[in-house]
Automatic annotation (TrEMBL):
<dbReference type="Pfam" id="PF00797">
    <property type="entry name" value="Acetyltransf_2"/>
</dbReference>
<feature type="region of interest" description="Disordered">
    <location>
        <begin position="1"/>
        <end position="22"/>
    </location>
</feature>
<comment type="similarity">
    <text>Belongs to the arylamine N-acetyltransferase family.</text>
</comment>
<dbReference type="InterPro" id="IPR038765">
    <property type="entry name" value="Papain-like_cys_pep_sf"/>
</dbReference>
<dbReference type="InterPro" id="IPR001447">
    <property type="entry name" value="Arylamine_N-AcTrfase"/>
</dbReference>
<protein>
    <submittedName>
        <fullName>Arylamine N-acetyltransferase</fullName>
    </submittedName>
</protein>
């Protein structure tokens, strides 16, 4: 079964809805350390995805500090680009989608249900992207954290992507797509989604719930993640976890001050003195 038979080409979303025109591409490219071509080709797409993933960490600091998360494109640029911070999935992927559109790619923003190994039905808490390159749809995702894609993966059943020591695949499950990561024992479900048109208000609603509901994974608990080609890092409150492709996991309990330092040293997150102080207070009280 071909990609054309299973998924229509991604539909371009209105830049007026998403704030695409306010993006500063030069500043963004400096932030991710990319100085290559800006044409809408497969090579540019893969390089931009990899550069973003390797530079900007996943983090929920603003949620923990009860600041909320703005999806306004000007605010996203100020935070992830100018301030040297990271963000969570909505922030990462909406910013990346806007940059891709500025370079001529066709992008469809999707909402997905996170599984992370469970079949429990969850609300659509994750953002992902379907990007059309030429006539071929790809799944792109720079905002899933430690176990997320390093490079995009072609969106057709059984498609495989590899980066370093990690492997992913996409499969069809009834009327939806499922992204999986290969673990030493078997394939591990990451998230599922249907290909459908979404609007900015859809993301605003789920973003508000995710940043305010006590049932949200990200409320009240510091979570910071990054994945490279051969190791994955997770900081959950003071516990620092390092995971390897062979299944080994190292867990180290940090002090409050050490945990804040890990944000700088491992995740390359720039914190203001006030943010560092507030995070130490949060960790001390947790």
């Amino acid at each position: 079964m071909s990609a054309e038979e299973t998924l229509p080409a991604a539909s371009p979303d209105s830049s007026n809805d998403w704030g695409t025109e306010s993006i500063d591409p030069d500043a963004y490219l400096r932030r991710i350390g990319y100085d290559g071509p800006r044409d809408a080709t497969r090579e540019t797409f893969l390089a931009l995805h990899r550069a973003h993933r390797g530079t900007i960490a996943f983090e929920n600091i603003d949620v923990v500090l009860e600041r909320g998360v703005s999806l306004d494109m000007t605010d996203l640029q100020r935070k992830l680009v100018t301030a040297g911070r990271g963000g969570y999935c909505y922030e990462h992927n909406l910013l990346f989608a806007g940059v891709l559109e500025r370079f001529g790619f066709r992008v469809s923003r999707q909402l997905a249900r996170v599984r992370r190994g469970t079949r429990q039905l969850r609300y659509r808490a994750h953002a992902a992207l379907v990007v059309t390159v030429g006539n071929e749809p790809w799944l792109a995702d720079v905002g899933f954290g430690d176990e997320g894609l390093i490079e995009p993966i072609p969106l057709f059943p059984g498609s495989i992507a590899k980066a370093g020591d990690w492997t992913w695949r996409v499969v069809r499950e009834a009327d939806q797509w499922l992204l999986q990561s290969l673990h030493p024992d078997d394939w591990f479900d990451l998230y599922s989604f249907r290909d459908e048109r979404h609007f900015a208000v859809d993301f605003e609603a789920t973003n508000y719930y995710t940043t305010h509901s006590t049932r949200s994974t990200f409320v009240g608990k510091l979570i910071v993640m990054r994945g490279t080609e051969n190791v994955r890092y997770l900081l959950r409150e003071r516990q620092f976890v390092t995971s390897y492709p062979d299944g080994r996991t190292e867990r180290v309990e940090k002090t409050d001050a050490q945990a804040v330092q890990v944000l700088r040293d491992v995740f390359d997150i720039r914190l203001t003195p006030e943010e560092a102080s507030l995070l130490r207070q949060h960790l001390a009280a947790s």
